Amino acid sequence: MNSVLKFFRDPELGSIEPRSFKVFNERSLERIDALYRLPEDVRFDMQVVASVLPFRVNQYVIDELIDWSRVPDDPIFQLTFPQRGMLEPEAFERMAALRRSGAGRLEIAGLAQELRESLNPHPAGQLELNRPRDPEGQVIEGLQHKYRETVLFFPSQGQTCHSYCTFCFRWAQFVGDKALRMASSEVEQVLGYLRAHPDVSDLLVTGGDPMVMKTRNLAQYLEPLLAPEYDHVQNLRIGTKALTFWPYRFVTDPDADDLLRLLERLVDGGKNVAVMAHYNHWRELDTAIARAAIRRLRETGVTIRSQGPLLAHINDRPEDWARLWREQVGAGIHPYYMFVERDTGARRYFEVPLARAWSIYREAMQSVSGLARTARGPSMSAGPGKVEVQGVTEIHGEKVFALRFVQGRNPDWVQRPFFARYDENATWLDQLRPAFGENRFFFEDEYAGMVAAP
Ligand SMILES: *Cc1c(COP(=O)(O)O)cnc(C)c1O
Ligand code: SF4
After folding, report:
1. Does the predicted model carry a pTM greater than 0.90?
2. In 10 A of CB 11, how many CB atoms?
3. What residue ranges do the domains of the chain occupy?
4. For the CA of 167, the nearest atom of ligand 2
5. Could you identify the atom of ligand 1 that is nearest to the CA of residue 149?
6. Minimal CB count within 10 Å: which of 81, 84, 246, 346?
């Protein structure tokens, strides 16, 4: 490729200083200077929670995204730093007592393991279902195939993130759950699977965060897809939170330009490349480096779509979503999904009842222009599929949730309206009951059959 790329001429780049990546985890928590403005007992609480749930934060997030004058309420602080309420009080007390007693690492790890088991580390049947096999019946590591058109791929070098989100639904893999480390380094197996499945139009590279990978590793998976035998794989999606946690990846990192060239080659080769950017708060878009990263990505011809869950303590106000969507659209990003926080990990701290989630979504939608009304949601990624809360209404005197699948394990379920009894407190699909005195949702028997015989 010898085109003169516009992204090398970005006039604002001159004002951006490169940064080297510096990161802290639960063992180096005490070395984060900014934390010393907090009371000692709050720092201890963080240690306790970080013994159980993953913790990782980098200096850019600490310096540029968190407003320390607003801690602990600051949304990015809540997004990245452990909070006492993320564990059940009893679990918290047990770990706190053990740490106070001066227990050693092994003992702490033992209790941590026990407490993690109670946090539903494997939601939505990820381990049993969705596992593709090769023609000999061998499970192919690092792939998930749940919906006909889309294959998820977890490259082994991309199974970490530049920081961890406190609410992450893949948290278990970051604290060493090997069963969940659905990683693959077998390029040929992955490509073979795609060749054998002409129904697959989308490959979604995910993690962790695939943008933690070196460009040359990413290229080894993506570049072969330009060959004619992969013409059916039209859409390459790359899931990432690097635009938030490490925008330098796209601007000043040593292989940032190589990455942009790779994306440009894929686009020029006829692929639709979609960067699926994970965003939770408009503050993530606020820095000059984050804006530069977005501009440079867009210059390559990729599209950027955004998705992220609705979370108590972080973004549970309609005005935050309206501003997030408005600023995204202004920056050329297409809002795609608002998710409901999944039933795993620290969900007790973050969950928002479905009824409230829908009213936040609706109010936010009402205050933005049509271009910003492209996000679907609130959607639950549950075992049978992605179920969207379409609204609360009354039918023949019964108050109900109107629901629909936006993705289904059986494509035939998609877009069929169905109804659940209204429940002000329900936070997940499994807490909903069918409306109108019925005892099963229309998909339940079929889904039970799929679970019984995957
Ligand atoms: C969300 C999701 C997809 C992609 O669904 P789209 O509606 O096409 O964005 C694919 N696989 C899994 C397992 C998912 O959860
Ligand atoms: S960026 Fe995504 S995978 Fe990584 S910690 Fe956050 S939610 Fe989890």
Report:
1. yes
2. 6
3. 8-119, 309-454
4. 7
5. 8
6. 84
